[in-house]
Amino acid sequence: MQWADILNDRSLQDLPYKIELNGWGQIVMSPASNRHSGYQGQILRLIYLQMTSGNAFPESALETTDGVKVPDVVWMSDDFFARHAYSTPYPEAPELCVEVLSPSNRPEEIAHKIALFFEQHAQEVWTCSESGMIRFYDSDGAMHRSKLFPQFPDQI
Q: What dotted CATH number matches 32-143?
């Protein structure tokens, strides 16, 4: 299955799940929760308060070597947006990809997603735990603070 097939399939339009594709073209669904959505909204709000340029979006589709992944929040520079606008899925990662963790996420799965985002040229990846703890990563590993948004709190 290709991402365009998912976008055009009416039976998948109103599911209460986040949909991604794995490397074999199989649909992977994660159930939505209000806590998850709340953290997405808070992260977006805090990014918007600090950003001086660029765009921040929830749930943007990103082509990876392991299928289409959908980071919970992304921030992209004006340059990225000028190159890709609303292309779906994005052929490369926006500068920042954020994953809000759910109880069903295994550590190996999140480590794999982080690696995929960096492979697609993300500059930073953040994770938000179920308790609102933010962890910041660049391609070298964990960081104490974001370089893109140095004032972003590590707890929301």
A: 3.90.1570.10
